[in-house]
Specification:
Strand order of the largest sheet: 1-2
Helix content: 55-70%
Number of strands: 2
Order of helices and strands: HEEHHHH
Structural class: mainly alpha
Strand content: under 5%
Shape: elongated
Number of helices: 5
Radius of gyration: 16 Å
Number of domains: 2
Largest sheet: 2 strands, antiparallel
Length: 94
Amino acid sequence: MYDLKGTTPHLFFRVMGKQWTKDEAQKAFLQSCLQLFLQVQKEVRTEPFLASLHEDWFARWPECEILFGAASPEEPLMPAQLDTLKKAIAKRKK
């Protein structure tokens, strides 16, 4: 339906001119969602799509893992780390 060769919407890969994906796996995940996003953007509100995208994203790349490395149940987060995690989640949800 869409010719996406050479085109990637700014929203998906860059925010204010800065690429925010950390690796090729993240970029590939967003690329796989691109066609549906473009379709949804033309037909309905994007909020439900973006909420679902965020849910899938953070299931694959948990915020805690990104901030502190691989999480381990034997090593609970320290209070300062919990505070940092809460702030990161709150910032992302704005």
